[in-house]
Specification:
The longest helix has 26 residues. The protein contains nine helices and no strands. It folds into two domains: 83 residues, Rna Polymerase Sigma Factor, Chain: A; 82 residues, Winged helix-like DNA-binding domain superfamily/Winged helix DNA-binding domain (Arc Repressor Mutant, subunit A). The protein is 69% helix and 0% strand. The protein is globular, with a radius of gyration of 18 Å. By secondary structure, the chain is mainly alpha-helical.
């Protein structure tokens, strides 16, 4: 079924359309959930909660802009809500720490990645990051949120978001270099 018709049917709570929408978008949304958590069970819970919110709020989708983009935003908000609801402690480093070194902040993100690393391998490396690093990195890189927005969403200072991002990049760079050294020699 065409997306526009599928969305219209979902707005009418057509269970067959909801099933088709789920089957169409679940793999991509599960990938999104996996970027924010380490284990599949938690990601499955987030996936379930996200689709419940999509189906509950689909009438709010105006038809302007990408439906997948709208759905992604619902999922990111669901994931962040999950962290808050569970009172999960994101392991943020003290906000009083010094600012990250400028050369690290100025480094292009693309320079972190190597063509020999698969998307699955990179996702696994991101999942291995400490919770705070992984969350800030994912929000900044994949959701295109500013450090100010991230700080507001997570209840931290903008400087702490920048620091978490910088440290996440540094940790990923180390993991990537180790991977390359172990697989090219």
């Amino acid at each position: 079924m065409e997306n526009r018709k599928l969305i219209a049917a979902c707005k009418k709570q057509d269970t067959n359309a909801q099933r088709e929408l789920y089957e169409t978008f679940a793999p991509r949304m599960m990938g999104l959930c996996m970027m924010y958590c380490k284990d599949t069970d938690t990601a499955q819970d987030m996936l379930h909660d996200g689709f419940l919110k999509v189906f509950t709020n689909i009438k709010k989708y105006s038809g302007r802009g990408s439906f997948e983009g709208w759905m992604r935003r619902v999922f990111v908000n669901t994931i962040l809500e999950h962290f808050r609801k569970e009172k999960r402690k994101l392991q943020f480093i003290s906000e009083e720490m010094e600012e990250p070194q400028h050369e690290m902040m100025d480094e292009n993100l693309e320079r972190l990645f190597d063509d020999s690393i698969t998307e699955d391998t990179l996702l696994k490396m991101i999942q291995e990051l400490p919770d705070g690093y992984r969350t800030v990195f994912s929000l900044y890189v994949f959701e295109d949120m500013s450090h100010r927005e991230i700080g507001k969403q997570l209840g931290i200072k903008e400087a702490a978001s920048r620091s978490q991002y910088s440290r996440a990049k540094s940790a990923l760079k180390t993991k990537i270099n180790e991977y390359i050294a172990n697989n090219n020699g």
